[in-house]
Amino acid sequence: MTIVEGMTGLIVIDTLSTPGAAREALDLYFAHRPRKPVVAVIYSHSHPDHYGGVSGVVSQAEVAAGKTKLIAPAGFLEAVVGEAVIGGNAKARRGQYQFGVPLPIGERGNVDEGLGKNDSREGPGSD
User: Fold this and answer.
1) Distance between CA 51 and CA 43 in Å, rounded?
2) Residue 109: per-residue pLDDT
3) Fewer beta carbons within 10 angstroms: which end of the chain, N or C?
4) 10 Å Cβ neighbour count for 55?
């Protein structure tokens, strides 16, 4: 998650994987910076770890009321459907091996995924 602080509010770029993780990240930000409204959310691309946490930083009511703008690349929804629905089962199976989800979390089990620490599996502050 990247947060850009403007004069009138925040722009959040890529909202992490889950609402709980996104909320925790935004709360950490607010612990050190002024509390301003989220005025825009930008999805850089269609992988779930870039949009899955949106409801942790902004409500559907705020978006519907025009208080927060959602910005995504052209073809974003089609790409999400293609990855999650059409290719979802194969992708989930591959992820079991690629990311070691069945392994226990800890220093002798699943610690990271090569690119970085594991994606959130919810936890403190989760829905």
Assistant:
1) 6
2) 64
3) C
4) 16
Return the residue matching tokens 């899955």: 52
- In angstroms, the CA 17 to CA 111 distance is 17
DSSP letter at 45 equals S
Determine the straight-line distance between the first and last CA of the chain, rounded to whole angstroms.
19
CA dihedral 44, 50, 54, 58 (to 10 degrees): -50
Q: CB-based contacts of 46: which residues, under 8 Å, 6+ apart?
A: 73, 76, 79, 80, 83
Span 30-61, pLDDT tens digits: 999 999 999 999 999 988 888 989 999 999 99
Q: What is the DSSP code string of 58-122?
A: S-HHHHHTTSSEEE--TTHHHHHHIIIIISHHHHHHHHHHHH-TTSPBSTTSB-B-SSSBPPP--
Amino acid at 24: E
- Report pTM: 0.74
**Residues in the chain, pLDDT under 70:** 105-127
